[in-house]
Write a structure and sequence with these properties.
The complex is a heterodimer of chains A (about 325) and B (about 110). Chain A has about 325 residues and is α/β, with parallel strands linked by helices. Chain A has nine helices and 14 strands. In chain A, α6 packs across α8 and α8 packs parallel to α9. In chain B, α1 runs parallel beside α2. Chain B has about 110 residues and is an alpha/beta fold. Classes of the chains: A alpha/beta (about 325), B alpha/beta (about 110). Bound molecules: zinc ion (2 copies).
Chain lengths: ~325, ~110
């Protein structure tokens, strides 16, 4: 399987400002210090090997949207945040608008940052496309019709030409989609949210965002450790610091990098991906958190356990499992 | 992990040793909260000089003790973090929540001020 991150940001999409771009350019030129490059390959090598990651790159600012490639013709997506717009454009570019596709969507929940990309999903306007929205919430359609109705949006949800179906799902009742088995788990978040486990050919990817993990609930931790058990990739809500989740932002429904490392250690998962990044953080701040998480993993790793790989999600990132 | 409490002048000192994690945090928390009850507004200094590692449950125990101390008008001060535990405080941002002192004496001086 393969996971592609189309939107890594939590709560609200963000864009890089002109001032930030100038700072990155300045920093790169300062590092280059008058050097010249004979060709593109040399320049690429300099950018990759000599510039700090957050100078040469950016985490990006689209809200939650992840594609799970199961090897099937059918598409599988988690959440429909603003990252969906770019996924939709890439899918149309690949097939052309005339060839109908099947899109299977698994919704963590219906907060705005997780559905706001849908009005900008070209496939929903094209007849012949099938869009199946799997959700464990009682009435997810309400959120879609509300965000796409006057006076909030000019095109009403009811006029969308694709065949859009809402499919009720329940934790404990796996579904077979695009050749994969998909399970759900209920998470602690305002109005509830659900995490998903995708399994195919002995590989497992977890999508678990907008989920608060409390340190005073070992039973809940054991349930999640079971759900994450030996997963090859765990996409995990690490929006806040641990200190915030037990003080000012307690019960705000999000988790931390520290909680992610500890749960993945318990689950003996292989790879933790920090996700649902705080919109207030710039690339340097997110990169610092990424490096600190690698360090915490070393410090907290139980004796005899193999290392847990840690990565931090950026828009456009592809992860093979 | 071992933990014990002693009175020292105007403060109470909670001394923990070893690793504070999922298994040992409940005992650490119990001792801290006992100290809060016994302190009656006196300052509490948590001597961390012999703690090798503290995980999220241990940090949460400190946070609960801090909240209870503050609601009683008292102080809870952290002293003598080992380099590893200092790193954990920084990574988890607990260094922004707690007042940390390099030595127990420095924390005691603050406790009496
Ligand atoms: Zn969210
Ligand atoms: Zn949410």
């Amino acid at each position: 399987m393969k996971a592609t991150i189309w939107g890594c940001r939590g709560s609200l999409p963000v864009a890089m400002s002109a001032a930030t771009v100038r700072d990155k350019v300045k920093s790169a030129l300062r590092t280059a210090n008058g050097r010249s490059f004979r060709n593109d390959a040399e320049l690429e090598r300099f950018i990759t090997e000599e510039l700090p990651w957050p100078v040469a790159n950016s985490y990006g600012g689209n809200s939650s949207c992840v594609q799970i490639d199961t090897g099937s013709e059918e598409y599988v997506l988690c959440d429909l945040g603003s990252g969906l717009r770019e996924f939709g454009a890439a899918a149309i570019a690949r097939h052309g608008p005339g060839k109908p596709q099947i899109y299977n969507i698994f919704l963590s929940h219906i907060h705005w940052d997780h559905i706001m990309g849908f009005p900008f999903f070209p496939a929903s306007y094209i007849p012949g496309n099938k869009i199946r929205i799997y959700s464990c919430h009682p009435d997810p359609k309400l959120a879609f019709t509300r965000q796409q109705s006057a006076p909030c949006f000019p095109v009403d949800f009811s006029v969308l030409a694709a065949d859009i179906e809402f499919i009720a799902m329940q934790p404990g009742k796996p579904v077979q989609v695009a050749g994969a088995t998909v399970r759900a788990i209920k998470q602690y978040h305002e109005g509830d949210s659900f995490g998903y486990r995708f399994e195919k050919d002995g590989k497992a990817i977890i999508y678990s965002t907008d989920s608060e993990h409390k340190q005073d609930n070992p039973e809940a931790a054991a349930l999640f450790a079971d759900f994450f058990r030996r997963a090859d990739l765990v996409i995990f809500d690490a929006q806040y610091s641990l200190a915030e989740t037990v003080s000012l932002k307690e019960d705000w429904g999000h988790s931390s990098n520290v909680a992610g490392v500890e749960l993945c250690h318990m689950a003996q998962a292989k790879h933790l991906l920090l996700y649902h990044h705080e919109p207030a953080f710039n690339d340097e701040a997110l990169h610092r958190i990424f490096l600190e998480t690698i360090r915490y993993e070393q410090l907290a790793r139980p004796d005899g356990q193999p290392p847990l790989k840690v990565s931090s999600a950026f828009d456009g990132m592809e992860l093979n499992v | 992990m071992d933990v014990r409490t002693e009175h020292l002048g105007a403060a109470m000192i909670v001394r923990a040793t070893g690793r504070i994690d999922q298994t040992t945090a409940p005992a650490f928390q119990e001792e801290l909260l006992n100290a809060v009850t016994l302190s009656k507004g006196q300052a509490i200094v948590v001597d961390m000089s012999s703690v090798d590692f503290v995980s999220s449950v241990g940090l949460r125990a400190l946070m609960i003790a801090l909240k209870q101390t503050q609601s009683g008008g008292g102080k809870l001060l952290i002293a003598a973090l080992t380099p590893t535990v200092r790193e954990v405080f920084e990574i988890s941002r607990f260094d922004t929540v707690f007042r940390c002192f390099a030595t127990v004496d420095a924390a005691l001086a603050e406790a009496q001020s």
